[in-house]
Amino acid sequence: IAVHADDIAVLQYTGGTTGVSKGAVLTHRNLSVNAQGAMAWLHMGDFADDVILAALPLFHVFGMTDCMNFPVFAACTMVLLPNPRDIPAIVQAVTKHRVTLFIGVPAMFAAINNYPGIDKIDISCVKSCFSASAPLPVDVLQKFEALTGARIVEGFGLTETSPVALINPMRTVRKVGSVGIPFIETDSKIVDLDTGTRDLPPGEDGELIIKGPQVMREYWNKPEETALVLRDGWLFTGDIARMDEDGYFYI
């Protein structure tokens, strides 16, 4: 059977902006460009010697793209762990397999920081980290970076964006507390909350909207809800955000 880039790859279920479960139709193109974009964003060159911690649930879009699709596409090693709350197992896996890329949520970074005896455990193998799904407290970021020597970048995405839409640069200016700048081939802007038709200037709060090749095709069998969030090629996220003068976004 011939498979084309714009064929459906998965129906990824989400509460979206209304809280009612619905299937985001993600195509092979959506997923492929997000994985390829991650490779380009990291600027790590040949990934053959890299080891990625894959402890996030793969049924969730964050885990599916960043802990499964990306390492498969990049041909690097995946260390699969079934329970992201099992911090002893995670610390052991990092040291045993010399994990170089740590992908997690803020609670995981905080738990490792507070793990008994962590100051005496060598986790300096970790070189790069990606955090998403919730805000990362500054003190958690600073302590984890001090333990590892790694750089943590925060990003933002939704199930509807496969998921990465915004992310801090890995090699240039990172703004702590920001979710970064638009991902590769992605446009983002802030519009007014009342009509969604007026672009807002830097510093003003409004709704974050996103356009790019990673944006879902539709909600499965829900044309009315699709029409609410996909307008003129833009995905209306329902999230309140602002953009600063440098083009960095804050949720």
Note down, in words, how this protein is organized:
- The protein is of the alpha/beta class.
- It has helices at about 30-40, 60-75, 85-95, 105-115, 140-150, 225-230; strands at about 10-15, 20-25, 50-55, 75-80, 100-105, 130, 150-155, 165, 180, 185-190, 205-210, 220, 230, 235-245, 250.
- Strands 4-3-5-6-7-8-9 form a 7-stranded mixed β-sheet, sandwiched between helices. Strands 10, 11, 13, 14 and 15 form a 5-stranded antiparallel β-sheet that branches.
- The protein is globular.
- The model has no long low-confidence stretch (mean pLDDT about 95).
Q: In short, what is this structure?
A:
This protein is of the alpha/beta class and 251 residues long.
How would you summarize the topology of this molecule?
Layout: E1 8-14, E2 22-27, H1 28-42, E3 51-54, H2 61-74, E4 77-80, H3 87-97, E5 101-104, H4 106-113, E6 128-131, H5 138-148, E7 151-157, E8 164-167, E9 181-182, E10 187-191, E11 206-211, E12 218-219, H6 223-229, E13 230-231, E14 234-243, E15 249-250
Parallel strand pairs: 3-4, 3-5, 5-6, 6-7
Antiparallel strand pairs: 1-2, 2-12, 7-8, 8-9, 10-11, 11-14, 13-14, 14-15
